[in-house]
Q: What sequence folds into this?
C-alpha cells in the first residue's frame, strides 16, 4: 500500500491530549508517524492546512437494518453513509428482522463492514422478546461487543439482572434502552406544554427515568458494566451523575437531537422528529449539555434509525420512531456544542472518538502511532444547508434537512485508504485537501 502524508492540519487527538499543527504519515494501513515537517519523499502529499485532522468518529448506536429491512438501509449503504459523516467505526444494533441473537448473524454483520468497521451488538434475549437470555458466550466469541434489546426495555428486572451477570462473565457491557412501556403507553411526544398545544399523546420523563434508576440499581447489585443508551432527560443525567459518584460501573450516551432540538420543534408535525425517547424541553437540553461538559455523559452517538418514506409520510402519531443521524453527527455537534460556546472542539471530539470507544471497550478513536489509520478531515467553520439529496443513507428521515449547520467533513480515511473525499463544493475551500483527486490520490482511494 502506498504511503500518504496529511500535511499541516490541526491534529486533534483527545485520547493523547494532542492539539497542534502537525503532519500525519500513513503507511500499510496504520498511523506511522505524527510530527512536525515529517520527511517522506515517497509518500503522496495531501495538503490539509486550515482543516482539522481527528480520529475517525466512533458511533456506538447505529441501526443498519440488515437483515430484514434492506429497503431502509443495508450494511453497505449504512457504512457508505457513515464514512460520508466521518464515522469509521460503528456498533450495529440487533433490532433487525430476525434479531441478532445467533452467532451466525453476528458473523454476518461483522463480515459485511467494508468502508467502515462494524462491531455487532447482540440481543440480550432471544428475538428481543424479554424472556430467554441469548447464548452470550457464543455471541461474544463470534464478535459481539455488547448486548442490547434496544428499541425496547427488558421488562423483567430478574431477566435484566441475569443478563448483567452473564454479560459481565464474558467481559462485555449491557446497553439498556430505558423506557417503561406502561408509562409510555400510546404516547408519541414528551409530556408538557408542547404536547398539550400540539394535541399529541404524551410520554412523561419518568418513563425513561424509572428504568434508568432500576438498571443502575441492578448494575450496583451485580457489579456488571451497564451502558445507558440515548439519555434524554435532566433526571436521567442526574441519576447517572450520582451513580458514577457512588462508584457504580455505568456509562451513558446521548444523541445530537437531544441537545439541538426540543419538544417545541414537534409543533411542525414533521414525522422525522418522532423518536424514542422523545425530544425533551429546553431545560433538559441544558442538563444534557452540562452532563456532556462534566463527564457524566461519556459519548455522543447518532441512534441512526432509517425509516422508509412510505412509513414516515403519515400522521405524526402513525409514524415509526427514529431519525437518521450518521451523516449529521459531526456538523450538528460542532454547531450546537462547539460554535455555541458550550464546549471546546477537543472536548467535543473526545465524546465522538475516545469516549465511545472506551464505553464499549472497542478499538479506534485515537491517532496513536501503530493503530489502524481511521481518520476524519473536516472544515470546522464552513456554513452549509443540509439538502435532502445530500445523504448517502437509503432513507431520508432527517429533521436537519433545510437547516444550516457549521462544519463539514472533507475526507475520511478508513484502514489507511481514502473512502470519502469531497470532490467539489459550493462553499469554497479553506485550505487544501479538497480538490479533485490526481492519479496518485486515486490509487489511495477505494472504489465503492
Ligand atoms: O426512535 C427510535 N428508533 N428509538 C429506538 O430505540 C429504536 C429506533 C429504531 O430502531 O427505529
A:
Amino acid at each position: 500500500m502506498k504511503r500518504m502524508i496529511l500535511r499541516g492540519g490541526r491534529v486533534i487527538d483527545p485520547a493523547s491530549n494532542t492539539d497542534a499543527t502537525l503532519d500525519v504519515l500513513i503507511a500499510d494501513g496504520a498511523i506511522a508517524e505524527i510530527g512536525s515537517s515529517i520527511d517522506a519523499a515517497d509518500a503522496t502529499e495531501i495538503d490539509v492546512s486550515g482543516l482539522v485532522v481527528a480520529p475517525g468518529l466512533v458511533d456506538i448506536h447505529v441501526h443498519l437494518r440488515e437483515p430484514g429491512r434492506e429497503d431502509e438501509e443495508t450494511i453497505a449503504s449504512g457504512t457508505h453513509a457513515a464514512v460520508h459523516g466521518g464515522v469509521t467505526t460503528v456498533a450495529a444494533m440487533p433490532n433487525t428482522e430476525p434479531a441478532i441473537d445467533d452467532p451466525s448473524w453476528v458473523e454476518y454483520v461483522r463480515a459485511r463492514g467494508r468502508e467502515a468497521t462494524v462491531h455487532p451488538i447482540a440481543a440480550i434475549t432471544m428475538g428481543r422478546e424479554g424472556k430467554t437470555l441469548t447464548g452470550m458466550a457464543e455471541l461474544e466469541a463470534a464478535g459481539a461487543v455488547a448486548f442490547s434489546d434496544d428499541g425496547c426495555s427488558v421488562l423483567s428486572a430478574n431477566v435484566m439482572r441475569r443478563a448483567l451477570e452473564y454479560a459481565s462473565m464474558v467481559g462485555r457491557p449491557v446497553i439498556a434502552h430505558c423506557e417503561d412501556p406502561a408509562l409510555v403507553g400510546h404516547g408519541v411526544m414528551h409530556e408538557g406544554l408542547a404536547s398539550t398545544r400540539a394535541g399529541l399523546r404524551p410520554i412523561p420523563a419518568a418513563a425513561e427515568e424509572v428504568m434508568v434508576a432500576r438498571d443502575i440499581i441492578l448494575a450496583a447489585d451485580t457489579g456488571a458494566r451497564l451502558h445507558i443508551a440515548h439519555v434524554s432527560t435532566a433526571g436521567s443525567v442526574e441519576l447517572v451523575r450520582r451513580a458514577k459518584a457512588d462508584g457504580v460501573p455505568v456509562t451513558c450516551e446521548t444523541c445530537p437531537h437531544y441537545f439541538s432540538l426540543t419538544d417545541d420543534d414537534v409543533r411542525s408535525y414533521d414525522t422525522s422528529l418522532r423518536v424514542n425517547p422523545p425530544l425533551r424541553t429546553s431545560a433538559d437540553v441544558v442538563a444534557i449539555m452540562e452532563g456532556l461538559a462534566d463527564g457524566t455523559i461519556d459519548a455522543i452517538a447518532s441512534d441512526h434509525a432509517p425509516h422508509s418514506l412510505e412509513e414516515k409520510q403519515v400522521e405524526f402519531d402513525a409514524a415509526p420512531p427514529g431519525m437518521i443521524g450518521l451523516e449529521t453527527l459531526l456538523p450538528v455537534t460542532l454547531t450546537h456544542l462547539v460554535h455555541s460556546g458550550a464546549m471546546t472542539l477537543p472536548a467535543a471530539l473526545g465524546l465522538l472518538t475516545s469516549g465511545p470507544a472506551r464505553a464499549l471497550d472497542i478499538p479506534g478513536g485515537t491517532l496513536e502511532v501503530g493503530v489502524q489509520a481511521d481518520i476524519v478531515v473536516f472544515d470546522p467553520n464552513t456554513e452549509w444547508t443540509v439538502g435532502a439529496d445530500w445523504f448517502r443513507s437509503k432513507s431520508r428521515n432527517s429533521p436537519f434537512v433545510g437547516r444550516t449547520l457549521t462544519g463539514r467533513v472533507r475526507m475520511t480515511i478508513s484502514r489507511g485508504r481514502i473512502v470519502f473525499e469531497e470532490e467539489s463544493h459550493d462553499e469554497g475551500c479553506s485550505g487544501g485537501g479538497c480538490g479533485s483527486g490526481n492519479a496518485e490520490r486515486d490509487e489511495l482511494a477505494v472504489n465503492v
Q: What stands out?
A: Residues 79 and 360 are 19 Å apart (CA to CA).
